[in-house]
Amino acid sequence: MAYTDPEVAWVGLTEDQAKAQGIQVEKRLFRWTAPGRAIANGRDEGVTKLLFDDSPEANGHGKILGGGMVGTHAGDMIGEIALAIEMGADAVDIGKSIHPHSTLGESIGMAAEVAHGSCTDLPPVGAQTLALLYAARRRGSVIFRPVSRIDEAVVAHVQATLRRRILRAFCRARSAGEL
């Protein structure tokens, strides 16, 4: 924990430590440009990073190995990640936990949702990324990776929501002359 501005907090393995130990990790980031509390506070420069076991034995449901946060009050929130490591939680466990809206702590749940592919509150992306996503959608490529533990109806709903948001953002960017 570093009491700087913004604060820096980390618990568990780092990417470098995992690499040195030969552990495959899946890294997921969630930038604080989406949570309403960060925006309302005028402090959306933060980021939450979670590391999950990505070994073949984990079969896509790896337990959390480490996590870090950079942002205002990061030190106040790192305890949730420490608890998740102690419990042996995976991304689904963390994502399904209640994270009150609108709080900075919901970025932990959102980072976990990004890891298992159900996050619908992704931060805004640039026009070039939108163009690539739109092209992938038109080709029928998979944009959203379903997880077997999630109800198929939820997966279908989230996929449809993401497609609508991507298409709307793409159309706005194109009409604004950004593409």
CATH evolutionary superfamily of the largest domain? FAD/NAD-linked reductase, C-terminal dimerisation domain
Distance between the termini: 42 Å
> What is the alpha-carbon Rg in Å?
17 Å
Strand-pairing-aware structural class: alpha+beta
What order do the SSEs take from the amino end to the carboxyl end, as H and E? EHEHEEHHHHH
**Percent strand:** 15-25%
Number of domains: 2
Name of the CATH architecture of the largest domain = 2-Layer Sandwich
What is the number of strand segments? 4
* General shape: globular
Mean pLDDT: 79
What share of the residues lie within helices?
40-55%
- Identify the CATH class of the largest domain: Alpha Beta
Q: How is the CATH topology of the largest domain named?
A: Enolase-like, domain 1
The main pleated sheet reads as: 4 strands, antiparallel
- Quickly count the helices: 7
Strand arrangement, major sheet: 1-4-3-2
Model regions low in confidence, pLDDT < 50 over at least 5 residues: 141-151
